[in-house]
Amino acid sequence: MSLMSTQLLLLVFATAVVYYIIPKKYQWILLLAVSYMFYASYGLQYVGFIVFTTITTFLGGIFIEKTSQAGKDKISANKDTITTEEKKSMKAQTKRNKKLICALILVCNFGVLAFLKYFNFAVENINAILSGVGTTQRLGMMSLLLPIGISFYTFQSMGYIIDVFQGKYASEKNPLKFALFVSFFPQILQGPIGRFDKLACQFFEEHKFELKNIQFGLQLILWGFFKKIVLADRAAVVVNKVFNDYTNYSGFYVIFAILLYSVQLYADFSGGMDVVIGISQIFGIKLDQNFARPFFSRSISEFWRRWHITLGTWMKDYIFYPLTLSKPMNKLGKFSKKKLGNTIGRVIPICLADLLIFFLVGIWHGAAWKYIAYGMYNGIIIAGSNLLDPAYKLGLKKLHINSERKPWKVFQIIRTGILINIGWYFDMGVNFNAAISMMKNTFVGLSLSTLTDNSLLKLGLLKKDIQILAVGCFIWFIISVLQERKISIRETLATKPLVIRWTIYFALIFAIPIFGYIGASSGFIYAQF
Amino acid sequence: MRKHKGILLVTVFLVVFIIINSILTFMLVPSCLTRVILHELVSNNDYKCVVLGTSQGAYGIDADIVSKETGRKTMNLCIGGEYLQDSYYLLKKVFETNHPDTIVYDMDYQYLFNIPRSAISGSSIYNLYPFSLDKLFYFKDKALGMEYRAALFPWMDYRENFSNSGNIVKTKLSADYINYNPDTVNMIDNNEYEGRGHIYRERNNHTEKIELIKFNEAGVDQDSVNYFKKIVDMCNAHNTKIIMITTPVSVEQLNASIDEFDKAFTYLSKLAADNNIPYYNFNLVKDSVFSRNMQDYNIGHLYGDAAGRYSTALGKFLKDVENGQVTTSDYFYNSIRDLKIK
Amino acid sequence: MEKLLEILNEVNADVDFENCESLIDDGILDSFDIVSIVGELNDEFDVEISPVDIIPKNFNSAKAMWSMIERLQD
């Protein structure tokens, strides 16, 4: 069931009507039923996967708590007879047991994800090595299909089990309630990746009908459709043409395609998020933001705090902190501080953690070398900027540049934008070699005449299309600036007179079919992870 | 009170939406033939024979000639872009408004393949279908899987027509349009609408061959096959005879891809047999009954004069079928390999 | 408490640790700063700050960090 299909809209409408009619204590059950129906619509054969994750993680949480409790009980039962040493060792044993359970659940679920996603990639590379060493042995690839949303629901569930292991909150005792957390349909396709403590209370509390939720939710859905259908699908025409036929394009054609890819990816992904968050809002459930005007970032680090935010925070909470605060990393930090001095030494563990995280971010996007390159490109820039930070600050001082003044901030934003766009060569290029080849070709045939002699109109878009893109992006830019200044568009709109509000609503509703791009229809990009 | 105000606002909002949408449909969607044809169907109730099918039949079958030959009033409901789902709902309308004793299904095998779920166009059969409970089911069947803007904005296919909207509105306000005069429809090339569903294509010198979809049994859309079964069941429920035919393509076209057509026709024969109805494939029609060659066709459709000859043959054939006096070997070869190019 | 402020200022001299109460919420401290701070605090005060403790409640102000340290020392 595509997010843009008529049946989805009808489903949301019908569910919302029932949701606000039935006794409030059954609201979450309705959501669970609809979520599974939605999931099954993508293929009954995939339901087993999400059920597997649900059951293993649910049971894992219960057992971790039981182990914890058993440990505590044993200690208090024997508190008069045991020594401090024995107490310490019992605690350690409990911790080891909990760790074992947690690790088992993580391995099972990430294992399934990794297998389905990366098995063929691994085989390809092993075969390349085998052919390199001259044998005729080859491993066979398998035809593997990815259950819908597996990356997202796996990450979300594994976050839960790690939280329970760390004692952040109590495990969920109701398996059906837990099943809703794993399968909640608006977020199953492309996130945002949620946290149990923030979602559970919302799922299971009673939701009164509030017109504001419906209004704001619908407005957000409309805005998301606008971005996807008018902007993203239009930009995609040029992107696909140039990237799929990359040997025939160079110079400004490539640059144009790269810039339009920024538009396409941002509009598609954030548009999808708006639809998803808007649908949730209709049910009174607030999902986490996944985008916060990423192109206003002044550094790559900041970009990843504004782009696909929930993936970044997941990596931060479940990989970055546990890794950098772990004993081995601590030892490394002390060692490198001794060898390389305090300033640099302190940074080494963090740089290593950054590299690892961006390696993971890279392969999360797909099983291909180009994605690994994409991740490492970002990781190296971030790790590098951490290492060079003192030198950088010194340089600014010497050049008498005040880093808080506006011109410098604008420079940083443009610089970051350029760096991000360079990253897209790896993300959108057909493969690693294509990406490199396109990078080289960017500097071939760079002639300003390409921009003025209508050459860019040979890429599948008419002048009218480019005008629509320009106007649409401009409107979006204005809205972004307002949001950056913490002005809530929807709240402001709510204060305007009805005629103005309705004019804007109808303008948006009809702008989509009037200006929407009509071509080979495609779904949301991130709904294939 | 606030609750009532809320419901009132929502209702008014929806009404305004419907009004704006209707205005856009009115000013952007030009006058189309399907509207005229549907009107002809529902405003008459003495059709005894109705033909369903696609543009092959729309150009190829002159219902008035068939009526003359068979002595029974015939209506040609073959419309360009009519998929089996559309035929099914059209047939419902037929039985609602008329009492036919024969339904002729003109099967074009290409329409059994995976249907591009394109937008509900303003000129589509669905959109011009009279509003009724059936139309709600039609909507459900057609629109649910579609993108929402394809389903809810029938004027979207015609959004380039803003500059032409003055003319369109003028036409739609004219007496001719209100009276379903086909002259208000802009026909392409030198097509003329003759009434009772027949489009007469004047000869011009184009005889381009069209690209036919290669037949592949795995690609057959099961939903379409199911709709065909439902069509047959509906006829049986009304004690109405139904036969399947195929309006012929040129002999040269057949010879160019004999194996493909063989496979396709074998499949169609099986489909008819599975539904217990006879199949008369006019691609096999004998030269002496109806002779045709490449010059009789334009983009796969018969020119008007050839259509006239074909319709005469078809009419005579249908009369024999009615009287139970059909000897298929009088009319048809056994295989397309028996056909000779002149 | 003074020692804490000393450490904080060493990690990032541009921040007003004495008065600011929204170090995390306003993004004044990023994860890089946090890790540096935690490392120093673990060493200086002999505590074991774990990832679970890295929440805004504990790091939004110097005062909050001090309460956390005191809690962990028990």
Structural class call of chain A reads mainly alpha
Any idea how many domains of chain A?
2
Order of helices and strands of chain A: HHHHHHHHHHHHHHHHHHHHHH
Q: Which descriptor suits the 3D outline of chain B?
A: globular
Largest sheet of chain A: none
* Terminal residue distance of chain A: 16 Å
Along the chain, the helix and strand elements of chain B come as HHEHHEHEHHHHHEEHEHHEEEHH
Largest interface: A-B, 21 and 20 residues
Given as residue ranges, the uncertain stretches of chain B (5+ residues, pLDDT < 50) are none
- Fraction of residues in H or I helices of chain A: over 70%
Number of H- or I-type helical stretches of chain A? 22
Mean pLDDT of chain B equals: 89
Number of domains of chain B: 1
How many beta-strand segments of chain B? Answer: 9
CATH superfamily of chain B: SGNH hydrolase
Fill in the CATH topology of chain B: Rossmann fold
User: What percentage of the residues of chain B does DSSP assign to strands (E)?
Assistant: 5-15%
Query: Over the alpha carbons, how many angstroms does the gyration radius of chain B reach?
Result: 21 Å
Present the secondary structure layout.
The complex is a heterotrimer of chains A (529), B (342) and C (74).
Chain A: H1 6-21, H2 27-40, H3 47-77, H4 84-132, H5 150-165, H6 175-183, H7 185-188, H8 196-204, H9 211-244, H10 252-282, H11 300-306, H12 309-324, H13 327-340, H14 342-365, H15 369-387, H16 389-398, H17 406-428, H18 432-442, H19 449-452, H20 463-484, H21 489-495, H22 498-515
Chain B: H1 2-28, H2 33-42, E1 49-53, H3 55-60, H4 63-70, E2 74-78, H5 84-97, E3 102-106, H6 125-128, H7 133-143, H8 148-152, H9 165-173, H10 175-178, E4 191-195, E5 198-201, H11 222-237, E6 241-246, H12 251-256, H13 258-274, E7 279-281, E8 297-298, E9 301-302, H14 304-322, H15 328-331
Parallel strand pairs in B: 1-2, 1-3, 3-6, 6-7
Antiparallel strand pairs in B: 4-5, 8-9
Helix pairs in contact in B: 4-14, 5-7, 5-11
Chain C: H1 2-11, H2 31-45, H3 56-59, H4 62-73
Helix pairs in contact in C: 1-2
